């Protein structure tokens, strides 16, 4: 497991680390299960991100291929706003003097709160247009607000009352959908 340098840790938890790569340290004294138990005992949360991350690195030596793969992996974990990395698989191959390493891992994140805080910056696509642009757009429906009666009629015409009573409705892909 790798831990991002500068990560805040629980006050009474001592995690032995060794410098591994620029900005990341190797956790030497804990397995992921033991670290998770220790963090939970301090009333912190150790998140496990379900999606597996894969990275590959090429080089003229095994070490250089591994270093590039780890660098690609830590970049991916940083993009997910996580501060820990659990490598689950490592494969090394050689072909005509070119070494490559393939890593599989999961992003992990430790923090005091029980909810994952996404501190990511605003997506680039949102920055392409100023916020005022959103408010200056005309609605696709008529500008006058619908009366409560019109809203209820629209809801019933779209099958809303049937869904709330559990009445079978037609689905686009199936003949009859029983709710």
How is the main sheet built?
7 strands, antiparallel
If helices are DSSP runs of H or I spanning 4 or more residues, what is the number of helices? 6
Computed structural class: alpha+beta
Per DSSP E runs of 2 or more residues, the count of β-strands stands at 7
Instruction: Give me the strand/helix succession.
Output: EEEHEEHEEHHHH
| Contiguous runs where pLDDT drops below 50 for at least 5 residues | 120-127, 169-179
Radius of gyration: 25 Å
Multimer state: single chain
Strand proportion, as a percent range, falls in 25-35%
Roughly what is the average pLDDT, rounded to an integer? 77
- Helical fraction equals 25-40%
- The 3D shape can be described as flat
Query: Cα distance, first to last residue?
Result: 46 Å
Account of the 3D structure:
The protein is built from six helices and seven strands. The chain has a domain at 2-111. 15% of the residues are buried. The protein has helices at 32-41, 62-79, 124-127, 131-136, 148-157, 160-165; strands at 2-4, 17-21, 24-27, 45-48, 53-59, 84-95, 98-111. The radius of gyration is 25 Å and the shape is flat. The protein is 30% helix and 27% strand. Strands 1, 2, 3, 4, 5, 6 and 7 form a seven-stranded antiparallel sheet that branches. The protein has 179 residues and is of the alpha+beta class.
